[in-house]
Structures are given as C-alpha cells and as structure tokens.
C-alpha cells in the first residue's frame, strides 16, 4: 500500500501513536492532527488522502462539524468525495447515525485493529 496517505484527527496522544503504528505496519503515510479545525485545514491544503479517520469528540472543533465543513469544501471546489470514517469508543447506533448524518461514511469503534483500517485503503 506504499504511496497511500491518510489523515488522522484525534486529540489523544496515545491514540495518535497507536494509529501511526497501525498505519505504519500497512506502509501508509499518516498525517496526524489534534482537532477538527486542524483536520479541515490539512484537508483544504492537500485533499489527496485515501481516507480521513476522524475522532468525533475533540476540542476546538469536533469531528461532526469538521466533516460537514470538509464536505462543503469538496462541493464548492468540485472535488471527489473522500472517505471519512468516524472514530469513537461509543458503538451506539445513535452515534453511527449522527456520523452518517454529518457526512461520514462509517463509524469505527475503538479499539481499532489494523485489518479494519486496511479495508478502507
């Protein structure tokens, strides 16, 4: 999977390091940011990600708002829709519905396994 790049937005250092390790094992470059605002800015600068892994609960801007703004940016610029995966410790169906309503493509529930990430590359 060399040459692929993903954007990870998570405010927890432990989760960031774990995800870098998992993507590294898949030979995927991982750009890590700490909140939804930074995710939006990173995507606007370089929308060439295989997918965005977006924690839904972060400071400054949460994953829901960041996703909505990424989708608006894609529409305004005529960009193809990037796969955005919500990330949460909460697997409740209402959480997944909220993710889909915000424009995410799916919800992954922590703890994450390498195989789950690989299926979206």
UniProtKB/TrEMBL annotation:
InterPro entries membership: Sig_transdc_resp-reg_receiver
Domain Response regulatory: 5-121
Keywords associated with the record: Phosphoprotein, Two-component regulatory system
Signal peptide range in chain numbering: none
Keyword Cell inner membrane: no
The keyword Lyase belongs to this UniProt entry's keyword annotation: no
Protein name per UniProt: Response regulatory domain-containing protein
Organism: Paramecium sonneborni
Phylogenetic classification of the source organism: Eukaryota, Sar, Alveolata, Ciliophora, Intramacronucleata
